[in-house]
């Protein structure tokens, strides 16, 4: 049985993004609480990490790059994507060139700038955890080869599984968690995560 390691990669300045270690810690705790009821299949438990040695990452882990903005996109730099492919707040794609999943979020979209599409407000931990959970839904459910679901944006009763803008007052619904559970159940041999920019 595997531990589901949620590996958040720190590719940002805490000063510039206003996202310090205290916010980072509570974001990780929120994600753990979101994932705990989703644990099933090959997984026995969930843990989170801010940064981890790339060599320790397995195909059963989930990696999310936390960037300042789209200009730092790992998908564009390493994954063969173009800037026009990127989403607001975050992007997740299976990279054909890397044969690996690349998942990233843009902290400036959700924390700074005051853009209401990103829920840019005081509860930074909830705003960031929500966008990370959304992108990890793509990673587990509709972006990879053999994906179990067609479109994460159309989950019935989905709150985070939606195409609507996310904000910090939203909470993952039972339908979101059931979908993630389905994604983890389908993850029988894992899925390669891109570790080349960790
Ligand atoms: Zn999406």
Describe this structure in words.
The longest helix is centred in the last third of the chain and has 19 residues, at 124-142. The chain has helices spanning 14-17, 21-35, 74-78, 107-110, 124-142, 174-185; strands at residues 2-11, 43-50, 62-67, 90-95, 100-106. It has one domain (2-185): 3-Layer(aba) Sandwich (Collagenase (Catalytic Domain)), CATH 3.40.390. The chain is built from six helices and five strands, in the order E-H-H-E-E-H-E-E-H-H-H. A five-stranded mixed beta sheet has the order 2-1-3-5-4. The mean pLDDT is 93. With 198 residues, it is of the alpha/beta class. The chain binds zinc ion. The site of zinc ion (ZN) has 5 residues, from helix 5.
Summarize the structure.
This protein is 30% helix and 19% strand. With 198 residues, the chain is α/β, with parallel strands linked by helices. It has a five-stranded mixed sheet.
Tell me the major beta sheet: 5 strands, mixed
Which class do the helix and strand fractions yield? alpha/beta
Bound molecules: zinc ion
Cα-based radius of gyration, to the nearest Å = 15 Å
Low-confidence stretches: none
Task: Supply the number of helical segments.
Answer: 6
Within the CATH hierarchy, at the fold level, what is the topology?
Collagenase (Catalytic Domain)
Total number of strands: 5
- Characterize the quaternary organization of these chains: single chain
Strand order of the largest sheet: 2-1-3-5-4
Question: What is the domain tally?
Answer: 1
What CATH architecture label applies? 3-Layer(aba) Sandwich
Please give the CATH class. Alpha Beta
SSE pattern, N- to C-terminal: EHHEEHEEHHH
Query: Proportion of β residues?
Result: 15-25%
- Residue share in helices? 25-40%
- Global mean pLDDT: 93
The 3D shape can be described as: globular
What's the end-to-end separation, in Å?
25 Å
């Amino acid at each position: 049985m595997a531990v589901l390691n949620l590996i958040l990669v720190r590719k940002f300045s805490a000063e510039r993004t206003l996202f310090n270690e205290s916010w980072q810690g509570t974001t990780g705790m929120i994600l753990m609480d979101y994932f705990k009821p989703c644990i099933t299949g090959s997984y026995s438990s969930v843990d989170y990490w801010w940064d981890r040695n790339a060599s320790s990452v397995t195909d059963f882990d989930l990696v999310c790059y936390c960037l300042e903005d789209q200009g730092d996109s790992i998908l564009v730099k390493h994954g063969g994507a173009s800037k026009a492919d990127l989403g607001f707040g975050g992007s997740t794609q299976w990279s054909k060139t890397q044969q690996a999943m690349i998942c990233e979020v843009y902290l400036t979209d959700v924390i700074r700038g005051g853009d209401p599409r990103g829920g840019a407000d005081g509860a930074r931990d909830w705003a960031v955890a929500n966008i990370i959970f959304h992108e990890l839904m793509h990673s587990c459910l509709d972006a990879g080869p053999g994906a179990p679901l067609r479109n994460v944006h159309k989950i019935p009763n989905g709150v985070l599984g939606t195409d609507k803008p996310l904000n910090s007052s939203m909470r993952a619904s039972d339908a979101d968690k059931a979908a993630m559970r389905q994604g983890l159940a389908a993850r029988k041999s894992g899925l390669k995560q891109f570790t080349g920019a960790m």
